[in-house]
Design a protein that fits this description.
Elements lengths: L4 H10 L3 E3 L11 E3 L1 H20 L4 E4 L7 H6 L2 H4 L1 E6 L6 E3 H8 L11 H10 L16 E4 L2 E4 L9 E4 L4 H6 L1 H7 L6 E10 L14 E11 L4 H18 L7 E5 L11 E9 L2 E10 L3 H10 L5 E2 L6 E2 L2 E8 H12 E6 L2 E6 L10 E5 L2 H15 L5 E3 L5 H10 L4 E5 L1 H6 L1 E6 L5 E5 H11 L3
Parallel strand pairs: 3-9, 19-20, 19-21
Antiparallel strand pairs: 1-2, 4-5, 4-6, 7-8, 9-10, 10-16, 11-12, 12-13, 13-16, 14-15, 17-18, 21-22, 22-23
This protein binds adenosine-5'-triphosphate.
């Protein structure tokens, strides 16, 4: 059975994965801080994405562009005029909602409202008597568009000229650097640019823990290809992304594709799909994959007056590449990973909580346990110092060995290493596996390689 959202929030706080932001001041709506274990898990998620999307592909390059960009970028991309959500207020209880999400929830996802006009959304809500989720009445205001870009001011004055935006997505940093990367890396189409970084959206209805936040992190790839070859690459990335989620151990039954219907596609996209995950609160978008044609490069070419076309060195043809964009939220993947892995098991009449996370993602790869502190601590610290040069290692010398195993299980540490007399006399340690609770004996000399092999992905 999947953990409830309420229990997951408690779990994350108790073990130092995620805390409420600014907690001692009463918090700040939907801001969260990643604690010691959360930082490690999040970092591992990003490392593995980088490995699979950049390191193992010779035609994909990295970028780390600035969060603050020339405001013209956001005019060109369309964010200033149309990066908005359809906002509707309940006249009775004064709560605020997203019209498309009301429809999506009411129809259990059969209709998403994506790509609908405001008129169509309003009519659907009226005709189907969709109730306000708070008070149950159907008495809504007309829809107003609410822009999601956060504004701030650059320099000392707060006048209009100095207005800048916090980026609403990382993707635009890639488009404006397309030529820089092509030139500096001598990149040939098809090639991709990958970026991990923070994005900001003034969401109207944030919620569901870290699922919808105002400050979040994205891992985006823009893969540039020849027009005409785009659908092939779109299908390639659909499979590649799903394969990635399977490889990191997310259960297949909790994942599905939600292809956007033709009439729901944004005007420049020829195909879009979401990979959805079955979160504790229900199915929700984890990863958006879109064929964005040449929309982004062509709009930046127009607004910047720079030639962003690609010159094919073989055919001498000049053209604007098409782009496939798999866009993934780090925090949404974090939420999927942790809710997927959390397990409660019964054994020998006892209950154990265990985080069955892929070893490559686990915050700590191993935990060092000196059986008797006074006798085994020195050797245990030697082993800690040896292993911690390679990966994150925990050290626990308090309480019974059984209790210490439980503590390692609940935070997902795959290997618990006990140091006892056999270690002092024969250089052997006992390694206990988190998932099976099976124990093996290993020589200290082989320990490091053994773990390194198991945490590969
Ligand atoms: P939604 O429909 O849920 O608002 P979206 O379609 O606007 O999402 P995209 O613009 O496609 O999302 O962003 C790409 C990815 O970034 C999403 O698939 C998601 O993983 C992540 N993401 C988007 N908005 C948020 C948010 N407010 N909080 C956390 N992650 C987000």
């Amino acid at each position: 059975m999947q953990i409830s959202m309420e229990d997951l929030v408690k779990f994350c706080k108790q073990y130092g994965f995620i805390f409420q932001g600014s907690e001692i001041y009463g918090g700040l709506a939907n801001s969260f801080d990643y604690g010691p274990l959360g930082c490690e898990l999040k970092e591992n998620i990003k490392k593995i994405w980088h490995k699979k999307f950049v390191q193992e592909n010779k035609n994909i390059y990295s970028l780390d562009s600035a969060i603050l960009m020339n405001p013209k970028v956001w005019v060109a991309s369309g964010h200033v005029t149309s990066f908005s959500d359809p906002l509707i207020d309940c006249k009775d209880c004064k709560t605020r909602h997203r019209a498309d999400k009301l429809i999506e929830e009411f129809t259990s996802g059969l209709e998403t409202g994506d790509g609908w006009s405001n008129e169509k959304l309003e009519t659907f809500i009226k005709e189907n008597h969709i109730p306000c989720p708070k008070c149950g009445k159907n008495n809504f205001t007309a829809i107003r568009e609410f822009n999601l870009l956060f504004e701030t001011n650059m320099g000392v004055t707060a006048d209009k000229k100095s207005k800048v935006y916090l980026r609403g997505e990382t993707a635009q940093g890639i488009f404006v650097n397309f030529k820089n990367i092509e030139r500096s890396s001598r990149a040939k189409i098809p090639f991709g640019v990958a970026q991990i970084g923070k994005a900001f959206r003034n969401e109207i209805t944030p919620g569901n823990f870290i699922f919808r936040m105002r400050e979040f992190e994205q891992m985006e790839l823009e893969f540039f290809c020849k027009p005409g070859e785009d659908i092939e690459w779109f299908n390639y990335y659909k499979n590649f992304c799903m394969g990635f989620l399977n490889d990191i151990g997310i259960k297949k039954e909790n994942l599905r594709f939600a292809d956007h219907k033709k009439e729901e596609l944004v005007f420049y996209s020829t195909a879009t799909t979401d990979i959805e995950y079955k979160y504790p609160m229900g199915w929700g978008e984890l990863w958006g994959i879109a064929d964005r044609t040449d929309y982004d490069l062509s709009t930046h070419m127009k607004h910047s007056n720079q030639d962003l076309r690609y010159l094919d060195p073989e055919t001498n043809e000049k053209y604007l590449p098409y782009v496939i964009e798999p866009s993934l939220g780090v925090d949404r993947l974090f939420l999927a990973v942790i809710s997927d892995a959390y397990t409660i098991e019964q054994f020998d009449g006892k209950t154990r909580e265990v985080l069955k996370i892929h070893p490559a993602l686990a915050p700590y790869k191993a935990c060092i346990l000196p059986l008797v502190k006074k006798i085994h601590a020195e050797k245990a610290l030697d082993i800690y110092n040896l292993l911690s040069k390679q990966f994150m290692v925990d050290y626990d010398d308090s309480g019974s060995i059984g209790k210490r195993y439980r503590r390692a299980d609940v935070i997902g540490t795959p290997f618990s290493i006990t140091i006892d007399d056999n270690t002092l006399n024969n250089n052997k340690v006992t390694v206990r596996m988190r998932d099976t609770m099976e124990q093996i004996t290993l020589d200290i000399d082989t320990l490091q390689d053994y773990i390194l092999k198991k945490i590969q992905i």
